[in-house]
Specification:
This protein has about 300 residues and is of the alpha/beta class. The chain contains 9 helices and 10 strands. Strands 3-2-1-4-5-6-9-10 form an 8-stranded mixed β-sheet, sandwiched between helices. It has a two-stranded parallel sheet with strand order 7-8.
């Protein structure tokens, strides 16, 4: 039974809403709010306590783009957790394509490398018991509605996945939506590989879908940000995207519904909203175990 959950990126948007919904679940005793900023985290903690009437929220300072911060967060975690929601991500800030000390781009660090290290450190410390859920994206298969092309890998080799990590795969781009899809695709493969390596833990990639109220676009340029948010509002009126409550509910379902199989990637069957579908049944390469393990090995190259 899931009693304790850690959520990364819990100070706003999907992470905050997931925490609110989790507090309503029977048996939940502790929700760890993984946040970068203590002051913002305290405000969210206070708000969630008022909304839920429960004092079950605890702050964990963590910046998933910084591996020292990730390792320190695991060391400071006071008890093991039953479930992990890897929600933090986004477009990586104004310098998303710059490489950090690990040799990966900022957008790769915040969306994938930090969560990979977080998961492995939790497992090493025996602090993760049942479920690890990664926030996937329909961008992993391309999103025509948002002008995002499907990732075009030639070999899916370790070296090609390394090139996604260090940014050379897509070159000197100024558009953060270009690397976003390949990174989310690689993350789904990594989760599938982890599921086979750790059969006692249920590993799920669950896309929250396209949601309004998320902060995922806030680090884009002002013009791109305005364009994307305006498009989202228009698509909401047309029923092509959904509200943040629906996206967070997908996380909750992924945690508690065992019919979502370990190692699988779930996202909207069509477009950005609506019924969920197992993506490996739509795109066979997602279920290719060789590709999955190559993605895993590429990530290991960057972990010091």
């Amino acid at each position: 039974m899931i009693k304790s959950v850690l959520i990364t990126g819990a100070n706003a948007g999907l992470g905050k809403e997931a925490a609110r919904q989790l507090a309503q679940q029977p048996g939940i005793e502790k929700i760890y709010l993984g946040c970068r900023n203590r002051d913002k985290a305290r405000l969210v903690q206070s708000e969630l306590e008022k909304l839920s009437g429960k004092r079950i929220f605890e702050i964990v300072l963590i910046d998933v783009s910084n591996l020292d911060s990730v390792r320190n967060a695991v060391a400071q975690l006071p008890a093991c957790i039953d479930a992990l929601i890897m929600n933090a991500g986004g477009t990586g800030g104004k310098h998303f394509n710059e490489k950090n000390s690990e040799g990966v781009t900022q957008i790769f660090a915040v969306n994938l490398l930090g969560h990979a290290v977080l998961t492995e450190e939790l497992l090493k410390a025996n602090k993760l018991k049942y479920v690890a859920l990664y926030a996937g994206s329909e961008a992993a298969r391309g999103v025509k509605e948002m002008g995002m092309k499907r990732p075009d890998l030639k070999t899916s080799s370790i070296e090609e996945f390394v090139s996604i990590g260090d940014g050379s795969f897509y070159g000197d781009t100024h558009d953060a939506t270009i690397p976003y899809g390949p990174i989310k695709y690689m993350a789904a493969l990594w989760i599938s590989s982890m599921a086979r390596k750790h059969p006692k833990i249920r590993f799920i990639t669950m896309s929250p879908g396209a949601t309004t109220g998320t902060e995922g676009f806030n680090t884009l340029s002002p013009l791109k940000q305005f364009f994307m948010k305006s498009m989202m509002q228009a698509m909401l009126l047309l029923g092509k995207v959904h509200r943040v409550e629906t996206g967070a509910q997908r996380y909750i379902d992924g945690l508690f519904n065992d019919t979502y199989k370990s190692g699988s990637f779930y996202a909207s069957q069509k477009g950005l909203t609506g019924p969920l579908g197992e993506q490996g049944l739509i795109f066979a390469d997602i279920n290719n175990e060789n590709f999955q393990d190559n993605a895993y090995q590429a990530i290991q190259r960057f972990i010091k």
